[in-house]
Amino acid sequence: MSAVVAEHDDHHDHHDHGPAKGLLRWIITTNHKDIGTLYLLFALAMFFVGGAMAMVIRAELFEPGMQFVNPQFFNSMTTMHALVMVFGAVMPAFVGLANWMIPMMIGAPDMALPRMNNMSFWMLVAGVLLLASTLFMEGGAPASGWTLYPPLVLQTGKALPFAIFSVHLLGISSIMGAINIIATIFNMRAPGMTLMKMPMFVWTWLITAFLLIAIMPVFAGAVTMLLTDRFFDTSFFDAAGGGDPVLYQHIFWFFGHPEVYVMILPTFGVASTIIPVFARKPLFGYSSMVYATAAIAFLSFIVWAHHMFTVGMPIAGELYFMYATMLIAIPTGVKVFNWTATMWKGSMTFETPMLFSIAFVVLFTMGGFTGLMMSVAPVDFQYHDTYFIVAHFHYTLVPASVFILMAAGYFWLPKWTGHMYDERIGRLHFWLSVISVNVLFFPQHFLGLAGMPRRIPDYAVQFADWNMISSIGGFIFGVSQLLFLYIVIDTIKGGTGEKVTAEVWEEAAKHSLEWTLPSPPPYHSFTTPPTVIPTEHI
Amino acid sequence: MKEGVTQKNAKLVRILVFVVLGMFGFGYALVPLYDVLCEVTGLNGKVESSAIKEVSYEVDKNREITVEFMTSLNEATPMVFRSEINKLKVHPGEYYTVNFYAENKTDKVMVARAIPSISPGAVAEFFKKTECFCFSEQTFKAREGRTMPVRFVVNPELPEKYKTITLAYTFFDNTETSVKK
Fold first, then answer.
1. Among A404, A489, B35, B57, which has the highest number of CB atoms less than 10 A from its own CB?
2. CATH 1.20.210.10 fits A35-516, yes or no
3. How far is residue A338 from each of residues A274, A292, B73, measured CA to CA in Å?
């Protein structure tokens, strides 16, 4: 029937009688639901750790002049905030969703490789702890920005090898997660669940997983070159030995550009899952969504040098990377059009998951437009390394990926826990978030256009007003997220006490298989494959 | 059926692990590929790192190009480094020699290397050097100062639009790494 059951024939008792007792359950578990929960809770914790670092940054930038921290620590904060949010919060959160939802969506009893699943989670924890430990080392945590450009990054103190090994661990963890997801989707689908009947979330994760196994090894190679440059006298990036620091940027962004799609493609998948349910219509243009996702993934490999327009590329290179980058707007536009068309004339209701999803469509589109502005090579010289790029990628990550993760939380928490969250607090959380996130990031466009560089602890006085407004928005946004923490804890404990049905949301079972299971689903679900495959989403 | 899925998983994992290892190798392969691609497409502004043979060109007396010389030191390299002249008007096709002066400010032997750069980058392939102190590492005795020549020619095929060429050198202190080797 399945690899899972087959593999566990030798220790029957564990798998046939629900979870192990006590804390050890969480350490040794190979159950996809348990591991999904671990990933999601870990990501939530890291969201607050990375958020606290962002609060340090915004507090320092509240006024011109040096306030609270020294410049070295400030730069450590920008670096660590990015690394923690990317590798500790957003990516693990989506892996958590994949663990919970993919087996239930394709009618599989578990992930294909449950033990590797456990290992990849604990390697993630080890990697993040190793990274966090650099904060307490002589010379401080890495302060070169998350891109770790040489020669600057080679000036990091004792922390450098630890940061590099932590990147290795995080990379191995992601690769194992990706292999597991590919194996699950290829080999574990229920009979009748053809590839083109899979929910969009599964599709986007399949493509993301392929991106991950293609790029994480390249990044691991790049940081290994940094390591040998520093300690073993190689000269990959060292000009004195005939190397070239620009080479690092090429290798890094060969990883880095697909990496940003690793964070956004599953976001697209969740949005494509939630919007049809609350619009009470099938997803508009299912197959075009699949092809657009694949097109974006392919294009992500051939546009990397648009991050490097100012390094001194020949005009032919600038033109190529400019036009190739602009092409990405087409499949992305297809997606935005499809979401809008899904809502068009739908019987929409505006529960919290839908509110976050609609905000995602609007605000992600804005982030996309600023991206399109920066794809124009000649004008990018003005925007490069200013607060304009900071505003751009935060628009594509916070009110996009993070909002959709919130939406996913509200959407599936009742399914996971069997309890309903408090809709009033959910909406309060939404409105506080959507207003404050714009107060936080919109002024940064103005700052960037006016010439304020990124990664600096102090600035000229003409930037004072918008920085203060941005910081105020940041503090409100940060505090608002505590509401989400409250809701998660409250819902796990019982929520409103309202009894939730298997479907939770009206007619959700027509869209996807997880809604045919009881809420909460049994510890082992789909031990016999489902017979009816929902097709409403197609 | 049970066996079937386990075997299929194992096979798929083998393939994917192979892909991962391949991509790790590809990361390293990018290092030479990057040079090859730049060479094939002529996209880079890299400067030749070895001397070329002196060939005679037809000197274009009607054209005059300004060549500027820049010198700098990497980080805290303890040296004095300057060119004897800051700029020179040259005719394409004619050979010129410009002297640079470098001095070791320490009381120890120093091994240093100068890394050249030419801008605009597209000019690099037209700027030929028959002699340069940058082609190899230079060893300076304690407190030694030395005058070193650079002999160059601008290929007359240089497109008309280029009027100024900047030649920049940065000296790196390689004593530590060279001693280890």
1. A404
2. yes
3. 13, 11, 56
Look-up of token digits 């004619």 = B94
Q: What's the longest Cα–Cα distance across chain A?
A: 70
pTM (2 decimals)? 0.88
**Residue type at A28?**
I
Could you say which residues from 94 to 133 on chain A have a Cβ atom under 8 Å away from some Cβ of chain B?
112-113
pLDDT in tens, A145-191: 999 999 899 989 999 999 999 999 999 999 999 999 999 999 999 99
DSSP annotation of A398 reads: I
Residue B90's φ and ψ, nearest 5 degrees, are: -125, 155
Rounded to a whole number, what is the distance in Å from the CA of A87 to chain B's nearest CA?
Answer: 19
CA distance A80 to A73: 10
Task: Name B24's Cβ contacts closer than 8 Å, sequence gap at least 6.
Answer: A217, A218, A220, A221
- DSSP secondary structure, A337-353, as one string: HHHHHHHTT------HH
Closest chain A residue to the Cα of B111, Cα to Cα: A240
A423 pLDDT band (50/70/90 cuts)?
Answer: very high
ipTM for this prediction? 0.86
For residue B74, the chain A residues in CB contact (below 8 A) are 239-240
| Beta pairing class for B65-73 and B164-173 | parallel
CA separation, residue B63 to residues A278, B60, B123, B154, B156 (Å): 73, 6, 16, 11, 9
Q: Which residues of A are catalytic?
A: 81, 110, 146, 173-174, 257, 259, 261, 272, 306-307, 332, 335, 454
